[in-house]
Amino acid sequence: xxxxxxxxRRPVRRRISSVVWWTLCGIxxxxxxxxxxxxxxxxxxxxxxxxxxxxxxxxxxSLNITDEMLSANSITRQLSDQISLAKAxxxxxxxxNNLQFAWELSxxxxxSQVLLSSAATRRAPLTTRExxxxxxxxxxxxxxxxxxxxxxxxxxxxxxxxxxxxxxQMGIVNEKSSKYGQIAAEEIPKGLYCIGIRLTTEWFGNxxxxxxxxxxxxxxxxxxxxxxxxxxxxxxxxxxxxxVVNSTALNSKNPDMVVFHLVTDEINYxxxxxxxxxxxxxxxTVEVQKFEDFKWLNASYVPVLxxxxxxxxxxxxxxxxxxxxxxxIKFRNPKYLSMLNHLRFYIPEVFPALxxxxxxxxxxxxxxxxxxxxSVDLNSNVNGAVETxxxxxxxxHKYLNYSHPLIREHFDPDACxxxxxxxxxxxxxxxxxxxxxxxxxxxxxxxxxxxxxLGTLPPGLLTFYGLTEPLDPSWHVLGLGYTNVDPHLIEKxxxxxxxxxxxxxxxxxxxxxxxxxxxHVDYSHPLLQQCNFH
Length: 534
Description:
Elements: H1 16-62, H2 65-70, H3 75-95, H4 99-122, H5 128-147, H6 152-186, H7 190-205, H8 207-216, E1 229-234, H9 238-251, E2 258-264, H10 266-278, E3 285-290, H11 303-308, H12 311-318, H13 339-342, H14 347-350, E4 356-360, E5 364-366, E6 383-385, H15 396-399, H16 405-410, E7 422-426, H17 427-433, H18 435-445, H19 457-463, E8 468-470, E9 476-477, H20 487-492, E10 495-497, H21 514-518, H22 526-530
Parallel strand pairs: 1-2, 1-4, 2-3, 6-8, 9-10
Antiparallel strand pairs: 4-7, 5-10, 6-7
Helix pairs in contact: 3-4, 3-5, 4-5, 7-10, 8-10, 18-19
């Protein structure tokens, strides 16, 4: 059979095109199903989220704490009030030794607190049904407390009595603390006592020391040369005085121009001479005297010495029994009658040839060169001092008795106080104004201790009233012996004062400030080693 030519052949059907068609149709159907199912799932999720959010909002609204507590029918507030009152009754029940009732109240307080906690956890307010039992039981206990006279008036009276008892106990504790602190502050450490004895022994057993002292005393002209820088210290503490001299010498730009005039008592005179004979301080000139050698210092001239002869004064300061202990122990310290304390009011008599002198206490440390103090203009005043009235309690009314007419008439109670410890004294003006007689006047007026009680600062405030020139506060930084001091003030301070009971050479000294003092003590010195001073 002959085949037709190519051009006349019948086209053959292509089955591949139909397979592709059915495949595409199936994919389209599947895509439609998938898209439809996702839309329905999103819609269902949105619906469930909206339902949950609506429920959450309702819970939040149902637990509005502010509205709940302000509501007149608030069960939560009623329970809270009952708990507060029950807690007060628990305290009174325990004080009345009714421990069983206190236990019952405490147990009911815990039950009520559990109810409040569960309400807060489920974020829904308490209902009357679930809290009825707790409120009723607590109300019965509170009624029982009232029957036991645990009412508000009784509570107030008992609390007042308790406060009064606590105040009395605190007063007793404070008095004991003050006494023990004062005793600790007045103690002489064994090391200092040992140093004094060994120095005295060394002085009499070593002729070379006396020879050295005599050689140094050949420069008598320096002791009267007003072109030099003269400092005075009145003390019976050898080591403390040594720190003052040493720290001044180390910080002085011209130590050979520095002259120290030391005055002590007869007991420590030899030891003080021995110490400064065996030690040199960068060429600083040191003179040691004892106040017993001042013939003019007698009872006929000095009111303090005259008062010491009075039996009442002796009883006040030395017996402690004449006023049934009403006067605080710090006011009865015999050191306030010591001539070494009151000698500061006689500086022109002690150093008749000098025109200007800087007075330093023995509990200071010098950090800067002090030669600038001698060029400070005192504006015809006698005393240059740093004022301490930054706080109200450092004004005159703090130190003086303004119920006394003499004080009230002559002195402004808000006048600014100042500090002893680092003072510049113009001795020319002092002599011209006869300041020592002013001091004598007020000291004699205070023979019955009605003008002031404590120390040398009150008579100093009276004596130099209107005669004091304020100095820059950086010259004299106080408080290192009893309080915390700003580190910036300490860093800038020329003279650091350990005023207060916590002296740096005592065990009760403030540890964080001791290094400022101790760095001027040579603990490797044989005498300090022998006396176990460290």
